[in-house]
Amino acid sequence: MKRIVTSIIILLFACTLRAQEQQAEQQTPIDAAWFKANYVKNEYMIPMRDGVRLYTAVFTPKSRNGGHPILFTRTPYGCTPYGRRNASFWEQPIYEQYLRAEYIIVFQDVRGRWRSEGEFVNVRPLTADKASGGIDETTDAYDTVEWLLRKVRRHNGRVGVFGNSYSGFYALMAAASGHPAIRAVSPQAPVCDWFLGDDFHHNGAFALSDAAGFLPNFGTAGRTKPTDKPEAFDTPIKGNPVEFLMDNTVADITRMLAGSIPFWDEMAAHPHYDEWWRQRSALNATHDIRPAILMVGGLFDAEDLYGTWSIYRALRQNNPDTECRIVMGPWTHGAWRGAGGANTIGQIRFAEESLSEFYRRQVEFPFFDHYLRDADDSGASAAGALIFFSGENCWREMEGWSPETENDTLTLYLAEEGALAAAPSDISETYSFYTSDPHDPVPYYPDMAWPRRKEYMTAGQEFLDGRGDVLTFLSPRLENDITAAGAVEATLYAAISSTDADFIVKVIDVGPDGEYEMLVRGDIMRGRYRNGFSSPEAFTPGKVERITLTMPDIAHTFMAGHRIKVQIHSTWFPLFDRNPQQMVDTYTCPAEDFVPCDIRIYHDTERQSNITLHIMK
Q1: pTM value?
Q2: pLDDT per position as a tens digit, 492-536
Q3: Which end of the chain has less neighbouring CB within 10 Å, N or C?
Q4: What is the C-alpha R_g of the chain?
Q5: Nearest Cα to Cα of residue 174 among 129, 137, 122
């Protein structure tokens, strides 16, 4: 493994960047005039194997040179502007190098969205009957590439695919299509599993804030034909959103929607992890992958952090001979693709220099240019894993990312009087107590901000000090740096007074003077799923139960002089729906089902509640 301190890697980058800037000074800047002079736009309705046609915009260099690679993105978000109006995607810095290198740029509305024909299906399952004409997102990607190779002129026969978020899901489907011309794919923050960890659920708990904010503008019913102006949806949330969500249950919102968002109703009809959910997992598409893969994500991505890590691990396990790399920076969802520097989140500044510029010029473009144009070897010789470690704020290079098998573990035990100790308690029976009240939920952010603030992923947690429904456990000051890499594993021994409850666990880095408490990782487990997501089980009031929670990977150094804090509570509002704290259907239960719950977290000789970190040797 190589450890690269930020200042060193940025110095090397700065030298390269300055050389590029000197060259760029002699080039005309990319603007509307440059784009019009150098690219031509064509629109096509490309037929799929079942006759449905998909809108596709193709931007081809006017240069008569041959050998242009194709860079392809499939999106549910629209390819505006449509018609003769020229595109504006050139304004995004992520495209600058591809345009100067004369790539053919292709965008496509996925089936059933915007100008494409057909029926849209959220996270469409893979079909088992392709030989009989069945379709899915892999066949649509395959058919489109086949058409492009036959109809678009002066390409070099090689296709790269990339996309972020939902488009990252479609990029993975393209990688799974099996088309031999697809040589390199970058699924970035891809949707993976909407029950276990991405967007709409975490470990069975309903991500109310994101679902209510995202689905009404996306998964709506009533589309009868392709359009470049989808009808705006009137959200049911009225007035102050936080007050609305407090005053209305999920069942109330479902009644207000009245079937206008089919996927919302489908989720409600499948409250547990059944076959319907398993069919929609992107992990089903991680087998027999042939193109080179560049996984990209943010360590503080509030939407699809689970998907990035999970798909990367599955790709490596299922395709040991396929080139598969991962880059994880100190980023929120898709920040590496934006115009900003992607070097700050809230009050935390990770670097002075632009980390997005570093990513674009030194990571992504060399990757595609190598596999699509046989460019220099820098795109092939890059590290198998390039991970930014917060806390110490540096990049580390390694052959791959397997922290659970390569690193030591450090277990920290919850203890008496709010201590976080290196050894388990020697007391025969001891516990910490709080009452969780769904009518007075713990806020996820000081002002319960709506829409959901992305910076909550690193926000200081001192605003919860003094709440009686939040347990706090604090370590002594660290004598040495502790570099944690990999999943955070929490084990709780809990007894509750009702039949269900949620358990939120947070790991926090407390500065040497306590001036700031950075949330490093936090996640939620719906208690009824403690023994399996497909088989919910009620708690027996008063009976001690073991709850385990595996949180998405961290890459963080707790510096000497700092402290590690663990917080535990049972509501996290309005980030997640309020658990009624009874064994009832959380999608359909009325307001009167919501009850307070007394919770005991045990930390004695027999019931050693703890968190485990994977520590780099």
Answers
A1: 0.95
A2: 999 999 999 999 999 999 999 877 899 999 999 999 999 999 999
A3: C
A4: 25
A5: 137
